[in-house]
Batch of 4 targets.
Target 1
Amino acid sequence: MCLFGASGHGKVVLDLVESTKKRVVTFLDDNPLQKSINNVSVFHSEKIGDYLDKQFVISVGDNLIRKKISELLKVTYAESIIHSTAVISNTVSMKTGTVVMPMVVVNADTKIGRHVIINTGAVIEHDCLIEDYVHVSPKTAIAGNVIIGEGTHVGIGANVIPNIKIGKWCVIGAGSTIIEDIPDYAVVVGVPGKVIKFNKPE
């Protein structure tokens, strides 16, 4: 398996992959100073063509960069990696390239998009829709029937009550509690969560 991205998140994904007894053969990254991670070689991303026949995961924490790499690769399939301690309902649907960290719970009839990160200890309840390139941070709790739009980052320990729609490319601050719908590109902090500004990705 090949991992695209040799940053801190890449280290975590490496551990996750190895926990499933799969072997990472290389990292690809643009950082010329990064030569190896835990005895796995890092090659410059210009060598990407040499590895497109491998199973791969985009191991980049930044949602927008993860999307750009996905579009650059123009590959329709990427491996999804799920830690053995995660509890995923049999009725959950999950698209390619998603990583699910230890102690995650995803309940019935939730739909997970492409290249999503569901981080350690997060809980996603029933009938949610988590769109492409979302990052659900550690210890986040998302109640039932919630929609989270493309590219949104839900910060550590945030809580979302049922039947909420969060727009695309939002940032939900750590520890925030979301009790009303959130528009696209909003940055939200506090309890209850309040929009403090809007950031549209370039």
Target 2
Amino acid sequence: MNFEKTIILCRPETSANIGAVCRVMANTGFSDLRITGTKEDYDETEVLKLALHASHVWKKARFYPPTIEGLKEAASDCSVLIGTSRRTGHKRKDLGMSPEDLCLDLKKFYGGRLGLVFGNERTGLIDEELNICSFSVNIPAEEDFGSYNLSHAVLILCYSLYIAEKNNPLTEKDNPSIEKNIYLQKASMKMIQENSEQICNYLSGLGLFKKGGKKTNETFFIELLSSAGASEFDIMHLTEIFKKLFFMYSC
């Protein structure tokens, strides 16, 4: 496998659901669980009852503040963030793909970390959480009963990726040496966010945002670069181009 996989649960409410998620993850080869929430708020006995033999996933789970900044911190080393949502619309990333679409070309994730982000049982992902994601996945369901249980949604996506990897094993040609190679290593969300902000700072210095729009364009660059699977080299090279433009035309 040439990419890492992470499950991020945003503000989960039910300890039993967390336990069921742990078991699903172990079933499908996932092990990295991150939660925006306070560990002490969950009943460990209830978690372990549902996790059964997947207690190791819970024991190694990492916790972050249940805020937007907490989600950003949890996802900082992910190169692609995929949010799950049953709703569509401009603010809901209305070009959401299906689980099958997600698995069509796994090579685009090579050299990085894929983060799957799930909202809590009642609200799902709020707009601000989904806006951090590269794009969204919509799991098909009946129109009048379209919301899946949290652990079921995790199962569907984990299983889809698990089967896709099993059915499309890597060949030597597909498996280049990626570690510490900036031309192949996917940029992390932290790197993408920082450089998107820097690019917009350069554009702002050229007078492009006198009437506003800087934050909107930062979000645009974040979504563009993360969904494109940009490498560390791509990000550094692009930022350098905007830096040169800034110094050429701001003098």
Target 3
Amino acid sequence: MKRPFFAVLGGMGTLATESYIRLVNRATHAHCDQDYLDYIVFNDSSVPDRTAYILGESDENPFPVLADDIEKATAMGASFIVLTCNTAHYFYDDFQALTTVPILHMPRGAVARMAQRYPKDRFPRVGFLGTVGSRKSGVYKRAVEEAGYTFVEPTDELQARITSLIYDDVKGSGELNLERYESVLRDMLDPAGPCACDTLILGCTELSVLNEAFPLPQLPVIDAQAVLVEDTVARAEALRA
């Protein structure tokens, strides 16, 4: 009997997809080859830059490329689909309209986990770290505010540093720097600083790569990709039961 499998829409970027797959395998309750989950990865590195399109800096639309991947995953019989790019959730409703196969929603999952771990009466101000495209899309802002929190955007100076971490360090050189990464988190959490956040959401999978390399459990941070990993494994293992 064929076991259920899920499809991963990746390649945005490839290192982030690699991190997601590695964490899924690590989180799976496996003791032999056959215990691991069944999945297919579309590492579609040809997907145009999502932020550039959302900001009107490029006419290359990522939607048709990802829509084609969704149609392929549906035709292959995937039980659910994982979209491993926060910024691409700008198109989420249109993606889901293409298929009856459920597509996991990473931002909503992250906010739900934040509400469990950091209740709004004690952690009311939520800082968002991600691409400018994700900020403009409003996907996280809506989810955070609907949950009853105050959504805090970084200052222009902090956003420039976040963008550099994403595009220069992870996507570009691949050289990860703990000091550069941690300083951004601490500056956003500084109660005397301009953001004065109580908790943070890492809403870009390149930042999740940094979080995997440099975990800082002492800081009140929700990593959207880490939550997606947990949700993926829970759903996939439930399908086997």
Target 4
Amino acid sequence: MSSSTLVAADHAYTSTKARIVSGELAGGTLLSEAQVGAELGVSRTPVHEAFLRLADEQLLELIPRRGAVVRPITPTEAADVLAMRRGIENASAEQVFTRGGVDADLRQRLAASLERQQTLVGSGDAGAFAEADDEFHALMIEASANPIARHFYAQLSGRQQRLRNVWLRIDPDNLAAAHADHEQLAAHLIGGDRSAFTSVLAAHFDKYQGAL
């Protein structure tokens, strides 16, 4: 595959994934390689490669001679993603507590993330808040200094962002609720309160589970 085709395939992948994750392309939407290629100004070959990558991430289901369908988020998938996130984030927090806490640089970055979230709560921008939400949880995992935890969290990126975008749009008050949870999580992580952190994190994920 030529370098230009690789670049086009990456563009098709990034663009289509963003539309799926944001909810613009809802579950059940039928996509054709020709249609997506025309929209992006590329041939079908790079779009086909992009579809293969998205199918591997279980965001698309390939249909021979027709294209692909955006996979709906099932209750089982939502539960599985949240269970994995709960395990990764609790394990990461435990490493932070064991190692002696959060350093000054990360404290500042967590504070900046919370401030940005507060601004987005005021504006009601659910899409931007979903990005800030992801950044916040990624920072908590980064605090563990565990590259394996960061790797597995990144592997869940597309699926968990889909869940966030759905949940945050169900009720405008969910933005404020998520921000309030994040404030508590940051305080307990920095303060070294294992029990409180675990309790708030469980309640945070239960809100997703109950709504989805």
